[in-house]
Amino acid sequence: MKKIVLSVLVAGSLLATSCKEVKKGATDLKDATVETADKAADATTEAAGAVANGAKDAAGKVVDGAKDAANTVAEGAKDAANAVVEGAENAVEGAKEAVSSSKDSALAGVTIPSFSNEAVTKNLTEYAAYAKDYIAANGNLAKISALAPKGAALLAKGKELASKLDVKEMAKYKSVLAAIQSKMAPSK
Fold first, then answer.
1. How far apart (Å, rounded) are the C-alpha atoms in residues 132 and 136?
2. For the stretch 11-23, what's the b/e string if a residue is b when 16 or more beta carbons lie within 10 angstroms of its beta carbon?
3. Residue of 163, 153, 158, 109 lying closest to 132 (CA atoms)
4. Which of 4, 35, 90, 165 is within CB 3.0–4.6 Å of 169 for a Cys-Cys bond?
5. pLDDT tens string 134-180
6. CA-to-CA distance for 128 and 132, rounded, in angstroms?
7. What residues contact 139, with CB distance under 8 A and at least 6 apart?
8. What's residue 5's pLDDT?
9. What's the pLDDT tens digit per position in 83-132?
10. Is the pTM value of this prediction over 0.90?
């Protein structure tokens, strides 16, 4: 029995020794785990700080981009407004030229526009003067008979000149001629 007791004592001391080592290993493992957790927490804090800084930088870049875009839009609107003003000024100049290129005829209420062929403008101006004389004759057959050849010649020359005009100017010519002749109609 001594052998058994001795064996149990040896086994017990071995167990006690190995438990101490396991306990020491567990303590070391616990310390390593705590140290690793601390390092992980520090790394997480640093990463969160880096993410926050990155987000802050990105937000700053977005704000800068928005400012640049707003400035670009404002410049575009300013350019568009200037183009509208310039277009309006050009339209006013065009209207002034159109008015200045029109001539008042000898007849009240009839304005002779200018044509690409100055001879057409001159012919209509002379025809308006003829019409004024015709109206002034006030039904006097002697005066009207004396004016008739001049009127016929002016109409023939006007038709010849008008035949060389483009469609737009031809319509303008016919409109002015009709206005002149409508002034003459009550005298007939």
1. 6
2. eeeeeeeeeeeee
3. 109
4. 165
5. 988 888 888 889 988 999 999 999 999 999 999 999 999 999 999 99
6. 6
7. 187
8. 76
9. 666 665 655 455 444 444 445 556 777 899 999 999 999 999 999 999 99
10. no
123: Cβ contacts below 8 Å, ≥ 6 apart: 154, 157, 158, 161
> In 3D, which of 41, 22, 19, 42 has the Cα closest to residue 30?
22
What is the C-alpha to C-alpha distance for residues 7 and 158, in angstroms, rounded to an integer? 147
d(C-alpha 48, C-alpha 58), whole Å: 15
**Cβ–Cβ under 8 Å, residues 127 and 174:** no
How many Å apart are CA 49 and CA 55, to the nearest integer? Answer: 10
Distance CA 138, CA 133 (A): 9
> Which segments of the chain does DSSP mark as H helices, in order?
2-101, 118-136, 141-162, 167-184
The residue among 68, 65, 91 whose CA lies nearest residue 76 is: 68
pLDDT at site 139 = 81
Residues 6 or more apart whose Cβ sits within 8 Å of residue 165: 115, 116, 117, 120, 173
